[in-house]
Amino acid sequence: MTESYARKLAAILLDAVTDKDPVVQEQVCSALCALGEAQPEEALSACEEYLWQHEKVSRENRRHQQSAWVLGSPSRTFLNGFSAQLAHPYRTMILRAMETVVSGHIGELDKDMARAIILLASSEMTRVKELVCDWQQAASSVLVAVGKRFIGKVMEELLSKFQPGALPHYFVVQTLANLAASNVFGMVPFLTSILSTMLPMLGMAKHDTMRAVFCCALQYFSESTLEYLANLDQAPDPTVRKDTFATDIFSAYDILFNHWLQSREAKLRLAVVEALGPMSHLLPSEKLEEQLPKLLPGVLALFKKHAETFHVSKSLGQILEAAVSVGSRTLEPQLDSLLAALHAQICVPVESSSPLVVSNQKEVLRCFTVLACCAPDRLLAFLLPKLDASNERTRVGTLQVVRHVINSAASQMEVKKPFILSSMRLPLLDTNTKVKRAVVQVISAMAHHGYLEQPGGEAMVEYIVQQCALPPETEPQKLGPDSEDLPADGVRAISISTLYLVSTTVDRMSDVLWPYLLEFLTPVRFTGALTPLCKSLVHLAQKRQEVGADAFLIQYDGNVTLPSPYAITTRLLTVSSNPYLGDGRGAASLRLLNVLHRGIHPALGPRWATTIPLLLEHLDERTEESLSQKEWEEKLLAFLRDTLAVVSDNTWICQLSLEMCKQLPCYNGIPQEKNFLYKCIGTALGAASSKEVVRKQLQELLETARHHEEAEREGLACCFGICAISHLDDVLAQLEDFMRSDVFRKSIGIFNIFKDRSENEVEKLKCTLILCYGHVAAQAPRELVLAKVESDILRNIFQYFSTKVLGIKVETKDPALKLCLVQSVCMASQAICSSAQAGSFHFSRKAELVAQMISLYLDTMHALEDLLTSLLRRNMTPQGLQVMVEIIAKRLPPEQLISLLLTMFEGLGDPDKNCSRAATVMINCLLKERGNVLLEKVPEIVSVLRTKLQQTREEYVLQAAQHSVYLLASQHCAAVVSSLLGSPLPFDSHTCTLWRALAVEPGLTAQVLGLLLEKMSRDVPFKETRAFLLSSSPGRVATVLPLAATCALYEVMSALASGPAVLELYPQLFAALLLRISCTVGVLLPRTLQAKEKRGAGSALAPRSLEPCSSAVDALQAMLLRGGNEDVVQRLELEGGWQLLRTSAGHEEGVARLASAMAKFAGPRLPLVMKELVCTHSSVYEIQRVTSTGFLAELLTSNVVNDLMLLESLLDNLAARQKDPCASVRRLVLRGLANMASGSPDKVRAHGPQLLTAVIGGLDDTDDPHSLVALEAMVGLARLLDLVEPQDLRPVLLHVAIRIRPFFDSEKMELRSASIRLFGHLNKACHGGCEDMFLEQVVGGLVPLLLHLRDPQAPVTSACRFALCMSGPNLECAELQAALQKHLQEGRGLHFGEFLNSTCKLLVRAWAGPPPLTLLLPTGFLVLHVEAEHRPQVDLEQLTAALQLLLKDPAPLVRMKAAETLGRLVKFA
Which residues contact 1408 (CB under 8 A, 6 or more apart)? Predict the structure, then answer.
């Protein structure tokens, strides 16, 4: 492309800049800029010449030109032959294009071109005296752009219009100012002469506008000078000095401050104050010192005059910096007023919606920094007392300043650290949440600057820990957006974050926090902070270990406030027993234990490196609901035993046990943790070899225990039992010593016997002792316990049970004591029986034991016998037995009822069938009559029933057990369901039998199904995890409770009797199970269950698959079968739908097939099912929203939605999901709407506007990076076009055509094919009535369609053939239409080169005929895209001339496209 041709293109575009349509104007400018990119010199020269040619030549011409402007004529030539002046809006556009080109190619401009541009821009900028801001600013911007390289020539021109004695043009001054900002090194050498010329002008300026621009210039001049002086090493003239400008700047200052600042015009005052800031740095030192007493009050006064004070604060900061830099002495007397004014500003509440307020606060804080550097004592004397104020804003604002000066004036505050720390005393006590947050932020700043290393710093650390310990459950909820109160949770969260950040990122804090943070581990009041404490300590310890072993060692002996290794071990181990409390403190505590191993004991490192990760893995694989507390405690105790064995140091072990005993009172009111600590004490004492220590601590435990609490009695007894494993003799001796001790004798003294309270206390003490003996017998080694069971254990048990008073034997009446006796005797008897020497053991006290038990037994049995006899005499039949049991049941105490039931359960296995049958009758009678009081025993009863089912095969027993579960569930349905859900997975046959027993009665079955649905849906369906030791790829593992509930649903619904309940809950069951399937696709079993699954798969009678998604599919199948929809199940089986539902790739299709089958075979069920699925639009799980949307969308393919009158509600619900954040949901919504074309074609016209709006909205979906929503929209729109009303389609044709054009060139074949085929359908819809606006799109689409005929993908070329054939009739060119039909018949081969040549010739020929000139537009695009060998066939000159004509077409869109085409032709160079 030659330069002359580039000039010709520029001329054509410049002629078109006067277009009346703003969109066309913008396109012309873009084309000019494109030309400038390729040929900057030619483009700039053309613009420059054009603007000169269209200057004003006479008033007459101007009058004609104004008339033309009013009439909107694009013509520039009048009858007298002169060129008309171009109106300023058009000149502005050309100048902006020139600025763009100059800015991008400043390095390529030669001096002559630069000179020409400068003269033009100067002329344009100053042509009229009046302000025409857009035009003159555009010209000014051109000068500034050129001035970045040719500053001398620009200044030469500007200074010619900046002469002494006359006010310059406004934009001459503005341009000088902008040049100073954009080219510092180029402008500063000119400033001396500029200032000397400007100063007299200041007095001549009478208008505020002119004064304001002088202020702006002085501001920029001063800022440029300061930047120049700060970078003298890079400056062209390093001899420049500040005093060079001092005199002139002061003269200007005098006018600005003493005259202009007093103006009533707020904008001028702000312009003055903005200038005064940087100017103050250039004032002579003595003058600044002289002016400060007036200057500072004058600036401070503006705070009261302006609502937005950002510029005032910024200027004040600059003035203060200038004053400090010259060592001003006059600043000190004004400090009080300065501090008061600044403090008032900082206490203004900040609104996040007001950026100027935020910026103002930053500038105010900058002022405080300056004052802190020059007058730290005065600043602190002002600030610190304000921390004692009770006003929230005052205290918060003051804390903000303190925090800022700590950070920004660190050196000045160094010696003030003690004062600042001591001033925090009252803020530390403030309970206001805003103050707390501010205090935490101050402490964070202190941590970074060494304050916390000072005396008093530890109180700051303690404050942070206190805030971390705030209980989240008691903190208030977050308030509304307009509330000034912050939630306490915010304080806790920021404190936790601060503690961790300070611990991990501030190196100097390592010595402060380590080992100090250990002190907070043991006090109870910091329990809530344990997790963040442990995390911080872990990081600190690891950092110390990296430095070296010596740095990591803790000198416990040298620091009495530190908890001992024994205290740390005890605390962390105890709180780990309840591992999920406090944001997972169990795992955090164990990790800390692991890193502290060397300080706890040198020998523990290797062993803990193995054992602690296993404990952490156990926690990671479970949740709070699925963790077995008993199993977890056993693992922790095994860990403790292993630790003690590794240490194998009696002194260490004794110290640990002593510490454990000391910490017992810390857990009063926390029975679970205290009970576990008792077990730990027993374990530690068992490992101790010092008998004296063991006995002494056992004695203290007995003396200090809270015997009136049942849980503590049990915990203490467990402790004695565990200890007896290693120290049987000592434990027994200590129990006996305690009985003879003053403590015990005092408790049972004769005079205390008659005091009710003391008697009760004694009975509870006896309960403890009897239980201790029982646990000792149960835990002690069997080979040792036989020798002690009579002489020491049972003898003392009986002694405590009955006492003699005045020689008279008195037996207790306390039921608790009797129960303890029975429990202990039972444990002792089991110990004897389980011993290997049991056969040869001579039990001499057997008679006494039996007698005692018989005595208790006979007392009970005699009373019972009398009762039974009287009852049976009334009716000697099974019904009589039932009546008797009913009577007993009504009067039996709850604690005895369970004992009787357990006895009856044992009777189920009686070899005498009459007895076992009687047991079944009694059990079920008891459950029926008194089952309501057995809530707490439900798990135990269910467990016994499962065990009995495994032990017997008698049919009547099986039936009775099922009936028992049914009776229990009818009174405690939730408890029974929970107990059965706790059964091991996979459910064995007996558990399945019990589940099916709950399907007997419809009311109960419905209740059970409802509970199972709630269990299945309440917990999260899966946990995100990472494949252990294999890869870092994330995976999903099913949670146990929902999985168990899903399996249980299958079992219940597999019973025939569940039919009525299933029908009652049909919609809820269907929706819940479908959603369960959706969120378990691709979800794995927990590793513990994977092993069971593999073992089950290898057995002959493998249970059903436990795989999460498969189990949900099975449950849905069972539900459909029980609900009477066998046809649905069979149809999906034939179509492979069930298998598709299980896979990620096929799930969506499986849902569609399920919906189709439901529509065909279960239509009457759909209204309620749809109602349930509609509610899922707010589900937190994307896949559930996708599944429900896919189901609802597929229903629209069936006419059943019309029969059931569901169409309207379906459309409304799908419309509500159009804004869903998930792209797949939005895509399926569009599919559903388009499905109306198949299911309800006769309804499409009625809903045409709604459908078109929704589907076309999908084309504009910008949140889908893969454009799948747009793809669905295009496919759907193609289905709907033939069915909607033409008047509904016509208004959107143009938008759709424009929107789909970018997809023609998409990298994805599907998008290319769908968009092109839709374009064909749009053309088809316009046959016989194509409007001009759409015709432009038809023509514009020819180029990509022609090019894509060579697309490598067959679907795209097929779509192109279709679209081109459909476009033919709309082009109004019969010859072209015939050619398209001839060459593009489906199935016919195509010679692309020949076809393209003939098409181009036809297009050019059409330009000269009657069809619209816009047929030529594609030619420009073809020229840019066709292969090089085809380009000579198109005449560029002819094309340019044609495009020039199109620029005058009546249609704006045509003109715009012509300009666009011209711009594209520029790239043809």
Answer: none
